[in-house]
Amino acid sequence: MKTRIENITILTMNQEFEIIEDGFIEFDKQITCIGQGQSCHDADCIIDGHHGILMPGMINTHTHVGMIPFRSLGDDCKDRLRRFLFPLENECMTEKLAYASAKYAISEMLLSGITTFMDMYYFEDEIAKAADEMGIRAFLGETVIDFQSCDSEKPYGGLDYAKWFIPKWKNHSRIVPFIAPHATNTNCEDALKQANEISKQYNVPLSLHACEMDYEIAYFKEHYQQTPIQFLETLGLLSSRLVAAHCILLNKDDIDLLARYQVKVAHCIGSNAKAAKGVAPVKEMLEKGVHVGLGTDGPSSGNTLDMFTQFKLFADFHKNHYHDRSLFPAKNIVELGTIEGAKVLGMDAKIGSIEIGKKADLVLLETDSVNMFPIFDYYSAIVYSAQAHNVDSVFVDGQCLVRHKELVKESFQEIKKNLYDEMKEFSKKAKMYEIKK
Amino acid sequence: MKTRIENITILTMNQEFEIIEDGFIEFDKQITCIGQGQSCHDADCIIDGHHGILMPGMINTHTHVGMIPFRSLGDDCKDRLRRFLFPLENECMTEKLAYASAKYAISEMLLSGITTFMDMYYFEDEIAKAADEMGIRAFLGETVIDFQSCDSEKPYGGLDYAKWFIPKWKNHSRIVPFIAPHATNTNCEDALKQANEISKQYNVPLSLHACEMDYEIAYFKEHYQQTPIQFLETLGLLSSRLVAAHCILLNKDDIDLLARYQVKVAHCIGSNAKAAKGVAPVKEMLEKGVHVGLGTDGPSSGNTLDMFTQFKLFADFHKNHYHDRSLFPAKNIVELGTIEGAKVLGMDAKIGSIEIGKKADLVLLETDSVNMFPIFDYYSAIVYSAQAHNVDSVFVDGQCLVRHKELVKESFQEIKKNLYDEMKEFSKKAKMYEIKK
Known about the structure:
The structure is a homodimer of 437-residue chains. Chain A has helices at 80-92, 95-111, 124-134, 157-169, 189-202, 214-224, 228-235, 252-260, 269-274, 282-287, 307-322, 330-337, 339-344, 378-385, 412-422, 424-436; strands at residues 3-11, 19-27, 31-36, 45-56, 58-63, 114-121, 137-144, 175-181, 206-210, 242-246, 264-267, 292-294, 362-365, 391-396, 399-403, 406-407. The first copy, chain A, is α/β, with parallel strands linked by helices.
């Protein structure tokens, strides 16, 4: 089945940042033709883009799709992670709830133009089923952590889970399974090494939270006289397979190490700032050649699962931090959310830009809504004006998953109802936690 | 005509931050009844709120509604004000364009739940006409500046304009005219004093940009050995009539002066951060009792005219700045956008909260969209999750101006077409400026 979209402006995000006004595109699973004006080819389905903007599907390099139930719970509380999230997760998170949450979160991402996401959570097999059904592209990492968790009776149960989960999904066309030790300071050395061995053995990514917490830095300084990044180097974890989330509290040597080992970074400005953790040195990382993608973080941390929120926050925080409004012009921020994200996932040959032969992961933004006029600069409009709601249509592998702002394959109402039903026990307990706070 | 909305959660934003779940409200021009469950009164029109959130109409304390044509133009350029905005304004801004832009900007604000705004621009008589027609509440200040401007052949023409404009609109039920010297450093002492006299004579506010620019601070230090706030004190401009926009670069003494003279502040975090100007000391101002409202700034600076964008940025910037996630809990941020904004405008007896006898300026948020579930904390949902698109209905003075996300009184398509037509000359010139940059 071949689709053509015409009457659009195409932001290719190719190396030349080529923009094609009055453009058209044709694709099946892959992009087969891009041009200006009218196409001369055949297509089974022709879509009038109504002067919209076609951009590559956005890439969310860090999230926790099982965590929709936690949204708006204890947002402004100190040590929320240990007071709300960990205990409630252990008490209430189930296979069914993780699945229902993942379906909801994937709906939210698709509706906002995210076509690929990298997830770390529990019950990743359920999340894989959700991603498989919904047609999105997903990197899914089972969490390894030093305590009993919702999907394991013993600490570090994620190691065994991953050994079963990774081979099960490894040959899926849209799903890449991987292993996700929770953080530098929530795993012992041995567990981190074992996780790394699994990552090597199956040649899949390893992702963890790193250099995110003040107490994490203090812990490694006290116990190892090292930074967390130096500690990871000692254990042999630094490699091009590693995607380190957050990386806020880095020194210059840390950045050099990340660059030397070709470690990738998932930068979550919204989550980091809301939790008052600081602004990661993205400028310095990029200058050293470290690939940095953007992440929404989980819906409990970043609250909304769309990249537009991150784009705006990224611009405002990094410009303000360096006292330079010309730093990170809008097109470079869109770059972080598309082709740079693809580089973080090692997928830049296949996704992240609109080029012939690449996978047809595409987003059509409408420009009819009140916030989208005038447009003198398409990148500016995307970074400073656009919101999730402006996403009209979304394609993954050429398959239409969102059309006219609604899911195509599934009923959002049903997905929401299922989550609501599965959340009953969780919601009761969550309200008790709210009262205790 | 009496309207009842039922099946809603009411965030009253009264002094006790009272929340009424399963609530109803009745109003004509004013709020006549608030309660829980079913109302026992009569109403001409009954609206089912579908489990939505009813909040006070939001108050935008600083914007420039004539500037829609500039949106997305030269966003990331250094000294954009003098390289793009001032010259293009002088070349291309006309009476008709200001009017067309105001209609568009007011549409955008109404659709995002802003029911009152404070504007500074040129051709304010046109903007008053637009506000009058559209039913929004507006504080409108004619700009006074030290050069020939788009609506005056001579410098400081705004002084004469204001003398004609203020009495013309002073008795309008929804419009408060005022005078707006552009900034501390774009007016001579005499013009500032004259503007202040006009403000006194008509007992209307005076608003200006203050302590926004590095070079402004340097200028007053060099020429007066004063801060801009000290300079304003010397001239007699500090008073409870003054609304100072931005106030980023304040020292402790400046804050004391603002408090002593009961000066009000319009804080525009989105615009300030994007332009890399810093984070205003809002915590310190509030601690000293200075009233601080939030502002979108103009659509060229803040890009979108909605308070949700400002709420999220406010939370993230101020929490991160003080390295404390518990600072400014969500309810206090909603407070800044509602009742605190009303205090800035001296209107808190009439608007800013949902209380019997107050004007029926109301916003109904739908909670059906994907970003609005679950809601454990209503304020969190508004600050961290909600977007302009979630605004379902808007009332000003009890009149329904937005229903089901569409303007009631006017056609947005027509407003957009008029602006597009009026912008033709502007757009041509703007593109030439883009190329030169």
